[in-house]
Every structure is written in structure tokens, then in C-alpha cells.
Amino acid sequence: MEQGYRFLVLFLLAMMFSRAMCIRHHKSTNNNNGSSSSPSSSSINGSFCLSWRLGVETNNVLPWPTVPTECLQYVENYMIHGQYEQDLDLIMEQAMSFVSTITLAGDSKDAWILDVDDTCISNLFYYKSKKYGCDPYDPSGFRAWAMKGWCTAIPSVLGMFNKLIDKGFKVIMLTGRDQETLGQVTRDNLHNQGFIGYQRLVMRTAANKGQSAVKYKSEVRKQLEDEGYRIWGNVGDQWSDLQGNSPGNRTFKLPNPMYFVP
């Protein structure tokens, strides 16, 4: 009887000790892995910024004057740590797959349109100084940057450009830059970065002043078609490069989460 009583007491003590250790372990786990029960602010921001960029690239966030301040680190990481280049490579591969299906007519009227800024040449170094788009757009600051002619070629687009030229396409560079102030420096910058052999560089003149990018570029493309050109492809980093009249047989939107051109 006494032996049975001792066994019962020891059993109860063991159960109480086991319960206490389980509670202690549970509290310790929650403290050490707080992110599992309450997500950290960095993970919340990363999730929001991923969704924000998706909305921007699909043209569902309109308009957006600046990058949200909480997305500065996210946009920086995207632009400089490899994902941006991988996305560009994929899009250019798709464009070249389309090019391979085209048989040129041989009349020098098969055309392809390329935007310039952040399509052919990159302004990433400038936008780094503007917190990757978190700062408001600065027209005079950008003009001063563009006047230096320091924009670097975007490698995947330069590769596609050279293949288009080799195949016989007439490549039209279509930019919103001002002809009077940035004409020569833009030509020099493109040439220095390897964009050699395009058909023409079309820039804004006094006649286009005040027009939206969509209206201005639509009118240029329509004029090209009136001249007999067949626009097979159109590449740009802004939706306004691709929208409107006469967009081309296929359009290819490049990523740009740093700024928005209406």
C-alpha cells in the first residue's frame, strides 16, 4: 500500500514537472521566433513593396509621382542586385523569339521602335542620387544629368539592337528628350554606348511641347506608318511608350519601378 502511494506521488510530480517544461519551452519559442506569430515590419514592407511593384508594372497603380518611402530599400535591391537584369534578359529573349518569326519584305520599310531613357541607356546612377525615385521628379536636375552624356547602355537591349540592325530592320529611336537642348549630347551618348546604325532619332520639338507622352509618340508612330513603315515591334520602359495609336505588331514593356511618365 505504502509502495503504491509513493509511486502515485512520484507520478504526479513527474507530470507537473513535464507540464512546466512544456510551458517554458513554448514561451521561449515564441520569444525567439516572434516573426512566426507577429511578422516583422521589414517582412510586411517587403510584401507590400512586391505588390506595389507588380501593380506599377501592370499599370494598375495610377498615377504614382514617387516611390513609397518604405520601398526605398526594396527598389534599390531590385535594381542593383540582379533581378532587374534577369527580368530584362527574359523580355529581350521573348522579343528576339518574335523577331525570328519575321520575314522582312526587303523594301527598307520594316521598322522597330526603341525608347531611349531606361530602355537603351540607363539613368540608374542619377536615380540613385534621388533615392531610386522616392524623391520628387526634378526636371532641371535630370536635364543637367543628361547633358553630361554619362548614361550607360543596357546590355540586353544593346544586344537586341545589334541583332535588329544585322537582320535589316530600320530601328527608330523615339524619345521624349528635347531636341534643342539635348539633341547632340543624346546622339553622342548613344553612339559612345554602341547604338550605331539606327535609321533616325526622333526627339521633341517646339511643336510637341506640352503634349503627353502618349499623344506625342502616337503621332510620331502614325507619321512613320504614313511614310510606309511597318512597325513590327515597340520597346519601352513606360506604358506611355506603348499606348495610343499605331503601337506596332507587338509591344515589350521593360521594368521601371523608379518613375512614371504619363
Automatic annotation (TrEMBL):
One of its GO terms (molecular function) is nutrient reservoir activity. Keywords: Glycoprotein, Signal, Storage protein. The keyword Protein transport does not apply. It holds the Pfam family Acid_phosphat_B. Gene3D superfamilies: HAD superfamily/HAD-like. InterPro entries: Acid_phosphat_B-like, Acid_phosphatase_pln, APS1/VSP, HAD-like_sf, HAD_sf. Residues 1-22 form the signal peptide. It comes from the Eukaryota. Belongs to the APS1/VSP family. NCBIfam families: plant-AP. May function as somatic storage protein during early seedling development. This is Acid phosphatase.
